[in-house]
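User: Sequence in, structure out. Go.
Assistant: Echoing your sequence, followed by the structure tokens.
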Amino acid sequence: MARILLFNKPWGVLTQFTDPGGRPTLADYIPIPRVHAAGRLDRDSEGLVVLTDDGRLQARLSDPRHHTSKTYWVQVEGIPGDEALQTLREGVELRDGPTRPARVDPMDPPEIWPRDPPVRVRRHIPTRWLALTLTEGRNRQVRRMTAAVGHPTLRLVRYRVASWTIDGIPPGHFLQIDA
């Protein structure tokens, strides 16, 4: 029986179990042996990381060929207009090629934990939250997409992977599911 862990990764934690530099890793939060992250989440991003001891499930969730959808809550600098949102929806041209189309919806600020350290605030520049759903997972893709349309990402929280969400899982905690 496969073991699945849904971990709400705090900001600053590496999505690996060791770090020669002594930075916080999954090992500081996950005391269960022989589980591996299905995909990565950057150190400066927060939210859902799925871990499993099932190699096939891990590959299905992390391999871009399987088009596993992931939803991110993204706080961006400025207020994206219709053109910027449409560009995100149709796909953005990045250095490594165009992205697949994404679902993008403006949203109210989510009721989530405060980030430590806090996001930088600039008094005269407003911010906007977006719910952005992708079916691919390139390196720093969400940040590169929002920057490409003129709205750099300030905070990035992965809310959902496939059908799993971070609902009810505090930062730094995990929920174990036996599948």
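User: And one key feature?
Assistant: The chain has a mean pLDDT of 94.
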